[in-house]
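Final report, Chapter 2: Outcomes

The project's central promise was a pipeline that accepts a single protein chain and returns its three-dimensional structure in a standardized token representation, suitable for archiving and comparison. That pipeline is now operational. To close this chapter, we reproduce one record exactly as it appears in the project archive, with the input sequence first and the structure output second.
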Amino acid sequence: MSEIQPSQSALLRWRDVAIAICDEADAMAMAGFRRDVKISTKPDKSLVTEIDQAIEHMARARLRSEFPGCGIVGEEEGTEVVGAELCWYVDPIDGTHNYVRGVPVFATLLAVSFEDELQLGMVSAPGLHERWMAWRGGGAWRGSERISVSGVATIEDSQLVYGSRTVDTASGYMPGLDATLAEAWRERGFGDFWGYMLVAEGAAEAMMETGAHPWDWAAPLVIIEEAGGRFTTATGERTIEGASAVATNGAVHDELLHRLGRVQPRQARPSIGGNDDAQRQR
């Protein structure tokens, strides 16, 4: 962590600007939600809407005005002012595919880095009528309620959530994923920002994901850590620049990383009717 820490007044100013941007982004997102908006396919085959592009354009304009010379790392318009002391991360709509299909699990993600250390994160999900935020020393919040991770201490008692089981398994970064999920109390593929927020507020013990980007992970890292949890790659590095992310309540973190890294022997397919675990998890 950087030895140079921002002042409390700087943190609060960043928070207020993030709130103002998210207020506007929420209105823009909801104006286009479940309506006929222009959709394009990016080179990586993911979708982008005209609302994603409009929100990021608005956010960048506000940030340049409020913080001249700041760095910005965004999903749709790339990186500007590399190496700036103050850098903002912008994901205009995290969960664009949900947004396109009318699923209300989408959010605008904003985060602030100062001297290469993430200091503030905000996740605003207007379709869920929820907003989470955290800043260093200020704790983690859902609206006006302070939140914290759970105290569950074993994988067998944990609810584990993940992004895409197909992608995560195929990535090779979590060879023990399937076996770990099978050993958990409950597992669900909630995905995107929401999985991280469930961990931060104590509704799940871990969120696991591969193939996302720094703008997807910057805000969740701050919120998870300020809620009392841990955020690393599947191999234990504390970074948002890796190819994987594992966020937990802290208590199960080391054991989870160990299990995710285990290569499991191929097992026989379960017999028809062997659904006791599936029934238990409903």
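Archive annotation: Residues 186 and 281 are 5 Å apart (CA to CA).
This record, like all others produced under the grant, will remain available to the consortium after the project formally closes.
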